[in-house]
Amino acid sequence: MKPEPFPNEEARPPYPRIVLRAAVRVFFLGLLLFLPAPGAGWPAGWLYLGLYAAWSVLNIVLLARRSPGLLSLREGRRPAASEPWDKAFMFLGGFLLACLLLACSVEALPRSGFTLVSSAAFLLICAGYALFTWALLSNRFAIGAATLQAGQVPADKGPYAAVRHPIYLAAIVVFICTPAALGSPGGFVPAALLAVLVLARTALEDRLLLRSLPGYGEYAGRVPYRLLPGVW
Q: Does 188 map to a domain?
């Protein structure tokens, strides 16, 4: 596999495009949550949408200061997925995520107040977002596609000192907690399928890195767990 070039960290990211992409994601998330709903009176739905929007803005601000090259790749000119399984993950992951949000919107009726379970789920979603952002700030090669970049080295700081794929752990936490936060028992079906898909991608990407990234084998020897310390 030919490594992809990594952008100059001193170059100015394309901020208008980055902001536009983030706004479009928030817009479509809102459509999936509220278009099937009979009304807008859904506090949990608004909180979910607001948390995602705030997290998106926070990531842009932090990456702009700490790793503008990574921000450019993740939000501006991300290289295409080079592995067939990664392309399949992009498609299936997007489809299942849409199914998850639609299921939550349709099923979470009547629009009731927050429960202890939903409140705990929202706290875990915030923890998942925090872990995701921490991992991004600790790994300037986390571009969101399974492809090697020129000069890439294994990340071993921050959460990468405990597990090899903390971003995928964060994604699983958010997926599984979403139906609990939004009060949708049926939403656990697409959420569980998404979690299985992320587990499969973790295993395949880990195998790719072991095979192709210099130093990753030594790093894997120091950090033996992919997602959960003591488990896997």
A: yes
Q: Is residue 231 part of a domain?
A: no
CATH number reported for the structural domain that contains residue 178 in this entry? 1.20.120.1630
CA dihedral 166, 171, 172, 174 (to 10 degrees): 130
Look at residue 232 and tell me if it is in a domain: no
One-letter amino acid for residue 122 of the chain: F
Report how many domains make up the chain: 1
Output the pLDDT for position 112.
57
Q: Which among 226, 188, 165 is positioned nearest to 104, based on CA atoms?
A: 188
pLDDT digits (tens, 9 = 90+) for 69-100: 888 877 766 666 667 888 888 889 999 999 99
Nearest Cα residue to 151 out of 4, 9, 10: 4
- The larger pLDDT score, comparing residue 123 to residue 89, is at 123
Across 129-147, average pLDDT: 88
231: which residues sit within 8 A by CB, 6+ positions away? 225
Q: Does pLDDT of 113 surpass 50?
A: yes
Its domain, for residue 106, covers 15-222
Closest to 146 (Cα-Cα) out of 210, 222, 225? 210
- Looking at the domain assignment, is residue 145 inside a domain? yes
